[in-house]
Amino acid sequence: MNFLGFLAPILGFIMEWIYKVIPNYGITIILFTLVMKLLMFPLQIKQQKSTAKMSAYQPMIQEIQEKYKDDRVRMNEELVKFQEESGFSMSAGCLPMLLNMLIIFGMIEVVYRPMQYVLRIPRDLISQCVEMANSLGANLQETAYVVQNQVMQLIKNNPSDYASILSAEQLEAVQNFKFSFFGINLAQTPGEAGWLSVAIIIPILSVLTMVLFQIVTMKSTGQKMAGSMMAMTWGMSLFFAWFAFTVPVGFSLYYTASNLFSWAQTALLRKKYNPEAIKKQIEEEIAAKRAEKKKKKQVKIKTEDGREIVKEVNQAELDRIRLERARALDKELYGDE
Q1: Contact call for residues 181 and 253 (beta carbons, < 8 A)
Q2: How far apart are CA 36 and CA 106, in angstroms?
């Protein structure tokens, strides 16, 4: 198992449960996707809030970057200052994205190994089935990602050849496993199905929905599709396009459903967490904090001759006085050490 696919046993358990209720692989994948989206909905809310805030922060960040584009040090100082004032964090929406990536890798494992994760047939028995298939002239490689899909097809064609390895219940489970979804064999890669077959539609849909969802998300955050952002977005899209056409079609069905459900969730959450309303709220909060900092406060300050005077200072001046006082105390206590 790919170490990034460590969630496969858990995801396989969920798919197994759904498949027992509705014994159709394609419908199981779609319902599994819906269940995962519902389980992740609290995180989706968190990510939507982060996206809405990003929509508000982005113009402010771009203004700082443009203003100090010739002074990198000052730019970084102003960006840090902005983060302190606004509470903005670049990593705020990373957790949902990370978890989604782990689910994707786990799902890849499941669609590669349905005998193991959905039908719960032990790996040693699967290995024996591969050996049996090779002894009958199949020429399978046990380390190949699609070997379990291939073995299941061979068992379906000639179940009696594997009766000495699998129990009657296991043979029946493999024979009744429905890979077909509207006439498309979800166990095949697009290359195996044929590049002119109808199976090619699902990988194409997975790529199109991914690209459209990326564009909609970026527009909703106010990010401009230019420069390095443009290169990264289309680079990822091209990589995924290649990937979608090398894995079983079942994964592309999952990813298409995932993109569509994410799109629906985002549209629903945007009504509650409207970026324009949140932008206005954030601007008001930042303005209030800046106004508070500019407010004059009366503080007692010791002069160099030891007299105490009352002085009106704003927050920035007060911070500077406190820093100077702390340095003076350090010097008194530690001298030149």
Answers
A1: yes
A2: 12
Q: Which residue has the tokens 């100082």?
A: 77
What does the chain come to in residues? Answer: 337
CB atoms within 10 A of CB 303: 9
Contacts 24+ apart (CB under 8 A), 124-129: 125/165, 125/166, 125/170, 126/151, 128/165, 129/155, 129/162, 129/165, 129/166
Residue located via tokens 């010791």: 302
Using the CB atoms, write b or e for 308-337: b if 16+ within 10 Å.
Answer: eeeeebeeeebeeeeeeeeeeeeeeeeeee
**pLDDT tens digits for 167-210?**
999 999 999 998 989 889 898 888 887 777 888 999 999 989 98
The percent of residues in the chain predicted with pLDDT above 70, rounded, is 81
C-alpha 100: how far from its chain's center?
4
What H or E segment, with its residue span, contains residue 184?
Answer: strand 184-185
Distance CA 303, CA 177 (A): 87
Task: Return the pLDDT at 223.
Answer: 54
Structure-token pair, residue 291: 């106004």
Contact at 8 Å (CB) between 113 and 103? no
Q: Tell me the H-state helices in the chain.
A: 8-21, 25-39, 41-67, 72-86, 94-112, 114-117, 123-135, 147-157, 168-175, 190-193, 201-220, 227-244, 249-272, 275-294, 315-334
Q: Looking at the DSSP assignment, which residues form a beta bridge with residue 311? A: 299
Read off the pTM.
Answer: 0.74
Segments in 22-138 forming alpha helices (H): 25-39, 41-67, 72-86, 94-112, 114-117, 123-135
Main-chain phi, psi angles of 118, to 5 degrees: -100, -45
